[in-house]
Amino acid sequence: MVTFLRGRLLSGAVTLIGVVVMVFFLARLTGSPIDLFFPEGGTEAQIRAFEQAYGLDQPLYKQFLIFLGNAAQGDFGDSIWQQRPAMEAALSEMPMTLALAGIAMVVSVVTAVILGSIAAAYRFRRPDRIITILSLIAGSVPVFWFAIVSILIFAIQLQWLPTSGSYSWKSWILPVATISLSPIGVLTQVVRGAMIDVLTSGYVRNARARGFGSLRLIFRHSLRNAALPIIAVAGDIAASKLNGAVIVSVVFAFPGIGRLIVGAIMARDFPVLQASIVLVGLAIITLNLLIDIIYMIVDPRVRLS
Question: How many of the other CB atoms lie within 10 Å of CB of 238?
Fold first, then answer.
């Protein structure tokens, strides 16, 4: 267990360092913040003071070394536009992103388990065919297209839901539905396949012969033994949900770190952009570690090294 955790933490640290390096240099490709702060041109003294304040007067490699040293201590500098610590700005937006991703994950797993189990119980019959077709469609729909169309139909034409914001529970419906749609399609097929394998096994046939009811067989006995492939795929999807929450927060103007990242890119606010990406990377690495631990707990036969 300790060896496994040490190895996972080491690989996560290497991944995070790679993300940090990429973000630092790619952020500079967007241009200099001086062009935005002084669009009509400032005096030489003003520009020099601005560069010194944010370390832009140093060569790029020196900026990178300074950044690495400060980042190792958890200091990502101050936001150029918000005039507060960059990590503080990122941390203030992260809870909404985690909440959105968490709710969407619960909705995806619960819906997929129910639909996949029903499809497996009625395999090759009408309910199975209907659920299979709908799940394939759901797994193939582009996220951006579904978000825009759902806004057009449910928010603009029918006026049932708001187009943006998070001021009421209705504001969560479209973002959660958008993030959950594709995972529901994928997970439903995984649950269906895993449940069919278990339901056709010998011990399930024996239990059915002894008079066990269908619901008890499916949700008490079979589902637990079909959990391993479901957990494995759900883990991969859970990590992508954080990225999905980042994208959706932009489309629906939903508070979260996604909107902060886009704003930082537009404003060339390098400290906030770097802190936000590192925070998202840390969240994904932590989530993957937790999923691996859960996988090992569910099936002690699995040997991770």
Answer: 22
CATH number (2.60.120.10, 3.30.70.270, 1.10.3720.10, 1.10.10.10) of 1-305 reads 1.10.3720.10
Per-residue model confidence as pLDDT tens digits over 151-197: 999 989 988 988 877 778 888 899 999 989 989 999 999 989 888 88
Cα gap 145→249, rounded to integer Å: 15
Q: Nearest to residue 155, comparing CAs of 248, 258, 252?
A: 252
Angstrom CA distances, 45 to 32, 42, 51, 219, 294, stand at 17, 8, 10, 71, 57
Q: At what angle do helices 227-251 and 270-298 cross, to 10 degrees?
A: 160
Which of 51-60, 133-142, 174-183, 277-286 has the lowest average pLDDT? Answer: 51-60
Of 23-32, 131-140, 168-177, the range with the lowest mean pLDDT is 23-32
Taking the CA atoms of the chain, what radius of gyration do you get in angstroms? 24
2 falls in which pLDDT band (50, 70, 90)?
A: low
How many residues are there in the chain? Answer: 305
Backbone angles phi, psi at 281, to 5 degrees: -60, -40
For residue range 38-50, list pLDDT tens digits in order. Answer: 766 667 787 788 7
Give domain limits for the chain. 1-305
If 0-12 CB within 10 Å is exposed, 13-18 middle and 19+ buried, where does residue 22 land? exposed
Tokens 């006026």 sit at which residue?
Answer: 159
Residue 95 amino acid letter: P
Report the predicted TM-score, pTM, of the whole model to 2 decimal places.
0.79
User: And the tokens for 174?
Assistant: 């479209």
Q: How far is Cα 20 from Cα 277, in angstroms, rounded to an integer?
A: 8
Cα 28–31–34 angle (5° rounding)? 110
